[in-house]
Design a protein that fits this description.
globular, Thiol Ester Dehydrase, Chain A, six-stranded antiparallel beta sheet, alpha+beta, 4 helices, about 150 residues
Length: about 150
């Protein structure tokens, strides 16, 4: 999955490659991604830039779709339909993005697999820095199996 994420960043979504998120953990229920606070991800206030936070939420919420597709060797069309974000505190250190909604993504993937229609589902992502919650995202994923 780490190689797939890197390849997707290089070939399809250059912003992912630029920010360089690290996949720390993935299983059928949980995905954890880390983005380091460094020159590429900082804003003028020396905290993590909004765009870098969005990339982290994107990867943490979306990696499960590719995880389940790889298990079944299915080809998917995946996108985010909408995003809601709440920024609680400025992240002044590395940020960990965690999505524990793998079961929701799996259910959407299975529905898309059987119906051959596009399925939309909401997934939550929490962003923490130094153990403190700094942002919460609600991401509407849209999955279709080709």
């Amino acid at each position: 999955m780490k190689t797939l994420m890197w390849l997707m960043g290089v070939v399809q979504i250059p912003m992912i490659a630029y920010v360089r998120p690290r996949l720390m953990h993935i299983d059928s229920t949980k995905a954890v991604v880390k983005i380091r606070l460094r020159r590429r991800t900082k804003n003028h206030l020396k905290s993590m830039y909004f765009g870098a936070l969005a990339v982290g939420a994107d990867v943490a919420a979306g990696i499960h779709a590719y995880y389940f597709a790889k298990q079944t060797n299915a080809k998917i069309s995946f996108a985010f339909k909408s995003v809601k974000g709440e920024f609680l505190k400025r992240p002044m250190h590395d940020v960990i993005f965690e999505s524990s909604d793998g079961a929701i993504v799996e259910k959407a993937f299975e529905q898309a697999l059987t119906s051959k229609e596009r399925v939309n589902q909401w997934v939550k992502v929490n962003a923490t820095s130094n153990g403190e919650l700094v942002a919460q995202f609600d991401m509407e994923i849209s999955v279709k199996v080709k």
